[in-house]
Amino acid sequence: MILKPKFFIAALFLCALQVSINAQVSPHLLLAEGQYDALIKQLEPKSQSLDFPDSYYLALAYQQLGFPNKAIQCLTNTTATLNSQQLDLLCRCYLSTGDYTKALPIIKKTYQQTPANTVNLLRYAEVNHFYKEYEANVELLQEYTQQDSSNYNINLFLAESYEKTKQTSHAITTYQMILQAHPNNQKVALKLANLYYSDKQYVECHDLCMPYIERLENNKNFLLLAGMANFKNGSNHNVMVMFKRLEAQGDSSFLTKKHLGIASYRLENFDNATSYLKSAIKLKDDDPEVAFFLGASLGQSNQPLDGKLFLLIAQELIKPSPVLMEKTNLKLAMMHFDTGHYQMAINYYNKAYIYAPSNHQYLYRQASIYDYQLKDPDKAKELYQHFIDALPEDLNPKKGNELYAIKLKKVASNRLNNLIEEDFFKNGIN
């Protein structure tokens, strides 16, 4: 249908009127309605000549849409002194761009003016945290919590600052307080569990993780931490349970394979241990624990010397740790003894003794092999005597390991006397 001229003119007038009305919508109303794009479109062309509050509205629209640099340019494009609203927005923009150097003077000034303002305090704490001024944060936040100890964000910053300044007991107490008020907060629960773990409070770590493991569908973080805590605590059945649940959720990571393997070894399920540890070493071949326990597991098989290579690899990876060098040499000695390689067993017992010179039973074991396996009474007598002489005189029978040494000394003394008598009757008096 073709409009008559008078109707066409009227339509054009109404359209122009509508455009004019839209163009005249106040920036304040556009801001209130969240029409940031429209506000920018209206004010950006004259951004060089805007006065407050329009310059503030434009900067706020930029900031809301994720253009903090444009907001900063808009706010600083003036020689006039910025009011408190503008300074607050400028500070937020600097923080969002990570420009803490420029944010800090504003934060300090506003905090000094209104120290009870929680927003300013949190910003101050954020910058301190970035600059690793943890002790300053502790002092700053403690002062606030003396008046109000219920603020979640303040307490979280304070707990993290305690943790960073090695005030572990205070950090734990603060995390506990937060968690008591927010029991479903997985972030805080995991922070507290990790702190228990690093502080070697393994039982507490396990107990904290368990409720989250039972009620959360996505509970892998808590399963892993509980499994690690039980591993450190020597609770190998619990280690199996936690990492088996991770495995059932599709976890085939190195840590899962490693801990299932070592726990299986400690539970004397050597076939299971071998299987897991072989998988683990394929994923990461420079872990000394995996190499050691794989070698030890294979050492319990029908072909014990199959484990020798992995024990030697473990030795190369753990040098110069005397404790672990002792353990690997002990395993190698036992492995060679079980396969009838007695001289090699003696050599490895001797190496173990070098790394653990206070463990004198390695001398006894060498003497025993010379005595019963190699039938070399002279070397046996020499080492029995060396063993007896090396033991301290003041052994305490109330201590388990020293009681064992006392009993072993008695056995060695009797056997040494027997060998001397046998030698006397065999050779007579010269």
UniProtKB/TrEMBL annotation:
TPR repeats lie at residues 326-359. Keywords: Repeat, Signal, TPR repeat. It comes from Carboxylicivirga sediminis. This is Tetratricopeptide repeat protein. InterPro entries: CellSynth/LPSAsmb/PSIAsmb (IPR051012), TPR-like_helical_dom_sf (IPR011990), TPR_rpt (IPR019734). Transmembrane segments: none annotated. Residues 1-23 form the signal peptide. PROSITE patterns: TPR.
